[in-house]
Amino acid sequence: MEALLKEAFLEALRATDPHRLTARHLPPWRPDLVLAVGKAAAPMLEAALDRYGEIPYHLTLPKGQDPKGLRAVLARHPVPDGESLRAAEEVLGLLKGLSPKARVLALVSGGGSALWCAPLGVSLEEKQALTEALLKSGASIHEVNAVRKHLSRIKGGRALLATQAQVHALLLSDVPGDDPSVIASGPFHPDPTTYAEALAVLDRYGLAFPEARRVLERGARGEFPETLKPQDPALRRLSFRLTGTNLHLLRAAQRFLRAQGFRAVVLSDRFGGETRALARFHAELIGAIRAHGVPFRKPLFLLSGGEAQVKVVGKGSGGRNLEFLLALYAHLQAPLYALAADSDGLDGNSGAAGALLTPAVWEKGLDPRPFLEENDSLGFFQEAGTLLKTGPTGTNLNDFRLLFVG
């Protein structure tokens, strides 16, 4: 069963290969410039090069990824660095120099928020510290990106405003709900949030950051231009298509499991909220299935995706998928098989894609409480011996959870 869980995850990744997904939706015209950013940028760009031949491009990838012989800026993720700033400035310069007749193909995937960083009114150091604090606060990706967009000269549609060219974007979604304005903080898409709403996020999570607050307060008073809004005429120059989503990933695993003769149900592709609460929900659902056969009869596989949040209060290491499994282990009364992983191959700061729960973990008798208190899900699964390591997968379609109720 452990091998089947792993194979279902890997098969889902193979079925949603970014090169294949991009190749299906490339426009018939030859672009004057291709911009590729995010964790899936390299295979997306390769698909374009295979189709059009040698074309002008700019590629930005997370450090640690293999650019496969392509010219690339390798920047830091999830907290930006100086290379993130260089990449964004280069892209803005390229866009500014284009004529109204030029056509840009933008290949955008998750991770772009950190990889293109052009701070507005704040220093890079302030942006780095604020990003790190937001990611540890328990804020949703929608809240985090609302702040990012209003402290940026490239996010929130400002990349589109920086050019007169026609832009066609192909997007791989790593956000619950697949909102294009949230994927990579929507560099070419309209942003419904405001400076005031971004400021409210800082208030909600008790984040001081006076430099950022001053910018957001001035923006709320109208002293800075807002991000691109849905009624802006610049949007006549934008077309886009979602080429891959979390639901594609989950359905690929579902098809694989059904082909092996198992029943498999996709619960949702957009679970959010606090990770431990999400684990409790899954544990209670498993309990109802085991005890009463509702809402599903056993045996079956449960699949779910989306992106939950971890409020970090301890000094341990891990990620939201490891934390989910640790909390699930704490809630369950009886063993089961489960896998949870980030489709990009790196869950938080753990260095692993995720982990597995198996009956052997229960046999070890590990106490989850001290690990939960320290947010040390990595430490727990190192002791359990069930970490799942894939390395960077070259894609980013959000989280993957697979549980077998036998």
Automatic annotation (TrEMBL):
Keywords: Kinase, Transferase. Residues 301-399 form the MOFRL domain. Residues 5-214 form the MOFRL-associated domain. One of its GO terms (molecular function) is kinase activity. This is Glycerate kinase. It comes from Thermus composti.
